[in-house]
Amino acid sequence: MNNNFTYLLEKNLGIKFYKYQEYVVKNLLLSINKGERFVIVAMPTGSGKTLIEMYMSYWALENMKTGVLVLEPTRFLCDQMYSKLWSKVFSNDVYKVYDGELPHLKNILLSTPQTALKNIDILKDKYKVIIIDEVHHAFGGKLYTNLLEEISPNLVVGFTALLPTHKRYKLDPGLVNTLGDPYIFMYDFKKLAEVDPKFMPPKAIADLFDASMNEIEDHIYNRLFCGSIEGESRIIKFLEITFAHYGKAAFCESLWRAYDKGKVEIDKELEELCERCEYSHKARVIREVLTAYQIGINEIIKPVIIFTSRKRTAYEMKNTIANYFPKEKVQVLTSDMRREERLKLIKKAKSGEVDVIVSTLVGEEGVDIPEAGLLIMSDAPKSSLRFYQRLGRLIRISSPGKIKYLVVTLTPKTIEYKDLEKALWNLYSENVDISYILINIDAKSFPMRIVDLIESISKIYDDIAIPYTLITYGRELSDPITFLMEKVVKPNREIREKILKGSEWYLDEIESANKLYDALFILITGVFFDEKAKILKKFEKILCKSRLYRQLDKAIRDEHIFYIYDVDKISDLISHELENMYNMQYYENKFFRLDRKSIARLFMNIFEYKNISKIEEKLIEIIREYKKLLPLEVFIYAEVGSYNPRGKYLPAHLHLHIGIDSKIMHLLFQINYFDITENRAYDEEIHELIKMNLKAIGYKAALNFMKTHTFFL
């Protein structure tokens, strides 16, 4: 380390380099001496990256005899870094510039890429070393690319908290040609502690609070989740996510915009929710957290930083905690504030004039308040980088003696828990150790909302297995084919014409009285149909628009729930085909099937996985009841086929042999059981359940067919 610089650092800032910072500098210089022109250091926010940036600038002035351009992503960071650190260490050798004004050509210049690019003709010959703070912005950032290609620097050193793998592939190929591939050093707190045994990484005591919805909010969310609100599916999905992440105020703001653009149909229940004066679940839980941490008397946690991604939610939170503090003690930090206002707010928080800052995205980078004792994330960004940067507002080496607290408030059984899980997993996959955060998220995961829905509907329905359509469409379908005809086929002329054309041969043979119904019947149960795959793809877009569809898959694979096919509805399909075969004097059909998941779901009855044995008992009773009513001429056999690991399904086959007119009528019916994990694909209990389900269907179908023909009786 250069003694002159360490002297300046201690004299002007009163701090010394940690051993791990010296280690990082040593590795940087070794890589530069080996000829690397583009070097990146990823270190946790709060671990002192800026000190290393300043050292590298000092080293470049001494050894490369060129000016140093330091790039900050925002003007706000330019102001903060300049006034807090750079000007104190380098005095008259450094200056900051933005807004496109002509710079003072000091040895070190702090600027934004926008301003630097506007003044490229002045800068490109003087500044041949570039330091980039928050360098992840340069990956895919056109301004950075243009600037670096214009200057063609001798050396670029970038710093960031985390450079996710997917970001690295966004680097412009032209920039790689100019500078070469970036040489990347990755350090997390664990790695830094290994380098410097005396270094004790700062830690936070983590806690998790449920932002629970009340009865009305929960009802509206379930409607959004199940897709039972009319409107464009992508807008409904957006509203659902907004409601879970940011609460009622932000949701209603987005809803009014959707109404104005005609994207969502007017809905009385949604309007009634928005007219209620109460605070949202996201604001209410903030009040719970501050009460639990005794914000009024607990000075150790002040100041408090609260993060939310929506401006409307930030102001709602400010209002809901007004009972704890005078208004001036609670402030909102947003991008609407001028730089001077933001800097002034941070100073007030440091001095104790402000106790709570509710911040939007603008505070995720560069808000340096080491005095903060409590950080509340009111939503979990699934981006590992954003999550890590938020943590960096709290976990800082500049306040090692202070106990820190991290609280994450999430809406139970919504996508928020999935987002948190993804953020933590992404950090883990990037070799970032955040083992000081231990959260049990399984019991509150998104699929558990489906379990709750099943439990609540089961009580009303008075059955442990409930129709899938009760959750998705709010009603049980007496005939799914009629439902498909009314919802999908009739409103779409193109689909209607293709179905009728593709089934002409079949309709002529059976002399159909209801051609559209029978055409749809052959589409979903037969294999010989022109453009079948294309038509059913369009069905899926309409039937699978809600988030529930995918989460149902996950809930089944995670063994929270399972299903059988409805005995009455599937047997109606089969007996209808038996009748067609009899009328056409066609005694064998080996191609009758229901193998499209989106269609099969309409015939599905869902139950909690723990109730499998009870479902088996009910199926055994059904089989026993129907079997004794059938004559000896009926033979039924069920089998489970080979597991398809790619499609994650088990094909199951039902053989029906019915003696009639001194001949045997044979129907082979295939139906697939979807979302079966490989772990369960060979489970005997699952196989037995499937076979019993099919046998019950077979006996009921044979009984239906028998009742229409008196010669059986």
Description:
The protein has 713 residues and is α/β, with parallel strands linked by helices. The protein folds into 3 domains: 3-195, P-loop containing nucleotide triphosphate hydrolases (Rossmann fold, 3-Layer(aba) Sandwich); 202-443, Rossmann fold; 544-712, no CATH class. The protein contains 31 helices and 20 strands. The strands form 4 sheets. It has a 7-stranded parallel sheet with strand order 3-4-2-5-6-1-7. α20 crosses α27 (548-557), α23 packs across α25 (515-525) and α30 (612-627) runs parallel beside α31. It is elongated, with a radius of gyration of 33 Å. It starts with a helix and ends in a 6-residue tail after the last helix.
Write the layout of secondary structure elements.
Blueprint (H helix, E strand, L loop, with lengths): L2 H11 L5 H15 L4 E5 L6 H15 L3 E5 L3 H16 L3 E4 L10 E4 L1 H6 L1 H4 L3 E7 L8 H10 L3 E6 L4 H4 L4 H7 L3 E4 L2 H7 L8 E7 L4 H12 L6 H14 L1 H13 L7 H8 L5 H12 L11 E4 L3 H10 L9 E4 L5 H13 L4 E4 L14 E4 L6 H9 L11 E7 L4 H15 L17 H15 L4 E2 H5 L7 H10 L3 H10 L1 H7 L4 H11 L6 H12 L4 H10 L3 E5 L1 H18 L3 E7 L2 H4 L3 E5 L3 H16 L6 E7 L8 E12 L2 E12 L9 H24 L6
